[in-house]
Amino acid sequence: METLGGMRLAQIFNERQNELAGEWVAQQFAIASRRGGASEAQLRSQFAQFVTQICAALSTSERVDFRTPAWDEVRSLLSEVSSQRARLGFTPIETAMFVFSLKEPLFARLREDMASEPTKLIELTWTISTLLDTLGLFTTEVFQTSREQVIVRQQQELLELSTPVVQLWEGILALPLIGTLDSARTQVVMESLLQKIVDTGAAIAIIDITGVPTVDTLVAQHLLKTVAAARLMGADCIISGIRPQIAQTIVHLGVNLSNVITKATLADAFVVALQRTGKSVGGIATRVDAQGAIGAAGAAQNLNPYAGD
């Protein structure tokens, strides 16, 4: 845009700002109200700031180039607005309308002021349209980047929330897994489990896969890596939630889980964990004989005080 066009645009903004603001704010408020966004007073303040920065940028160079330092403040304002709207749930179109809402009232004023200069009107309309399109596309780009950052952060938070490590008993941890276990989630699982082992000094960790829909070779490898990492930290692992379908799948895949204790339910795994740590529940001690089997007779004696009389 030549200096003359920029000066003319700045003049219109300065002289007709109240009229432009009225129509622009009306359109923006209709959009913002659906999303619980800014108030009318806040929108008017944003518009005044936007117009002031545009006029300042238009007056600093012979040609308008949105990439030059003269437009830094305009880019900063549009970036702030776009990022805020991305967090509030606005759509890309609603965000771009922050700029595009200027077109209709601005062109109406141009037609009024330049009705006797059709050639200049067409030229100025084209250059202004190009400028506003550039500003609008910039808001869309920033919006998309901000939205992706929000999604990535939410995914990370969901990963952390979906892999809670619970202390079931002194020295016994449980890690219930729900959903698909991929490489990214395995890393989060491993870090959470290892940190909890360090914090609690646990000797047994139960990894419950009841909520894992399918187990393939990749999932099994992820589980084995987690078990190996826990052992390096001094804790043994028990995998619970082995359903018949999962057991058959593991056998068909040829996955070797012979070095890992597996149980059908979390309750069964908890019993084994109590046995291996020598803990008792409700005064009933769980003991292990020399071969590692439960001392059934001893347990029965504890359960029945009259046995052997």
Automatic annotation (TrEMBL):
Q: Which CDD domains match?
A: STAS_RsbR_RsbS_like (cd07041)
Q: Keyword Plastid on this protein?
A: no
On whether Phosphoprotein is a keyword of this UniProt record, the answer is yes
| Swiss-Prot/TrEMBL keywords | Phosphoprotein
> One Pfam family from the UniProt entry?
STAS
InterPro entries per UniProt = Bact_StressResp_Reg, RsbRD_N_dom, STAS_dom, STAS_dom_sf
> Which domain of life does this protein belong to?
Bacteria
User: Where does the STAS domain lie?
Assistant: 162-273
By what name is this protein known? STAS domain-containing protein
